[in-house]
Amino acid sequence: MNDSNANDAAGHGQKPSESTDPSIMIRLAILMFFQFFMWGAWYVSATGFMLREDISMNGLVFALYSVGPLAAIFSPFFLGLIADRFMPTQFTLAMLFAVGGLLLFVAPSMASPFGVPDVSSQHWLMGRFSMLWQSLQHPFVLTMLGHMLCFMPTIALTASLSFKHLKNPEKEFPVVRVLGTIGWICGNLAISLLPGKDASSLQFFLAGTCAIGLGIYCLMLPHTPPPMKGKRVSFGEILGLDALRLFRSPSYTVFIIASFLTCIPLAGYFAFARSYVEASNVTPFGSATFAMAFGQMSEIFFMLVMPLCFARLGVKWMLAIGMGAWVLRYGLFAAAAGDQIWWMIIGGILLHGICYDFFFVTGMIYVDKKTPAAIRNQAQGFLVLVTQGLGMFIGAQVFGGLEVFQTEGGVLDWKGFWMYPAGFAAVVMVGFILLFWDKKPKADIEVG
Questions:
Q1: Separate counts of helices (H) and strands (E) for the chain
Q2: CB of 64 within 8 A of CB of 107?
Q3: CA 236, CA 210: separation in Å to the nearest integer?
């Protein structure tokens, strides 16, 4: 979607050297800031609310962090069938943000204790699916699933709208997008100002108010007609099936498999790191979510130094370092468990900049460079489907089972809990280093 819009801009006579009207950039930056402020205001701290004694939904943590990946899997259908064909982008965003905000308002009232069902008599795999199915029927999880089904498409839509109106996207979009990271940080920090902090139900009202306000704001964004209006689109294009021919390239195949596998241990960070940080008493201003915001702060720094690192290291070692950062992060968490060594925990959080930028951003750049222009959008969509969709979804289920396995007498063994993903990520990293060989880029491009 992003590339087609950028190409459209070029086709309309916009030269790469031109600069976008500053007022347009400011409006887009505001959009990014509040979009990620809203997400950051609940996504990290929600476990604090769920683990309250009067709420007692600790058995639903894995389910809550399954709804985002599920929404990512279904998002391409909405984008391809509706958002890209029938409504202007700004109206679609307004509708999605407003409905998603209303669901956030409703979410706290849907909270109720959840007793973990006994699935010991079933095969372990069937037991996990049975647990997931029962968890997804809980009103709180259903409400948050509805919210994420509204929210996930907005990530692609805000990017495509930005590319449509920026005259020099390669230079200007990072400036706009970095406001999203700052918004996430501010959303995290705002939680520490609430009565009850991480455990407060007000986090959902704060995020919901922001979402509804953002929906109204979207009506004032530049008019952006649906890019595929009047054009026929196949089901295969929506799924990104044309991108499957890229698997003819061995390096691309290794990259996709490694990316998918890396996202399995990644899921544990989003679902359980905040609870671990809180259990380790690393709570500046009384909020573990405040501590987690240091990760996004480091992301800003590493985003700025990425071009220099990319020029010196290349794709393979940028990706390998990103994977290695996940190994080191979980290793630090495991080593700090029990003794509550705060500098190791903070160090693991600060690695987020390398974990995210060197892995995900480099991966998107690799796909962009290795894919023919005709299927570039599908290839990027397929990457999101495989990583943030399937990989994160499976990871949420794995960590849900690992939580049960590592809990004895109601106490979670954090050291053992983090050792498993550290070991798994290390195996994936070594396999990637040994098997990924991208010596001849032209061979990868000629896949059609």
A1: 19, 2
A2: no
A3: 36
